[in-house]
Amino acid sequence: MLSFIAIRLHQNLLQPVRQWLEALEIHNSKLAHFLCKAIPAQCPFERDITVFGRKLFHIPPMCKLNPLYEEVVGLRFRALCYLADECGEDITAYC
What is the pTM of this model? Predict the structure, then answer.
C-alpha cells in the first residue's frame, strides 16, 4: 500500500513538468537543432558487458526508467517535424 501511495505522489509531482513539455511549441530553428542533437534517437545505455567473449551481464535500457521519457521523445519529434515541415531542412542526419 505504501509503495502505491509513493508512486501516485511521484506521478502527481511530475504532472506540471509533463504538461509543460507537452505544451512546448517549437518556433525557432536553433532550438529545434539543439533539441535534435541533445535528445538521442534511441536509448544509448543498453549494453551487453562481455569479457573474453563471454557475456557477463546485460544493462537494460535506462530510458524506460525515466518518468518523462515519452514527453522528451515527443519534444524531439516535434522539433524534427518543425525542421522538416516549416524550415524545409533535411533531417536524415538526426535519424
Answer: 0.74
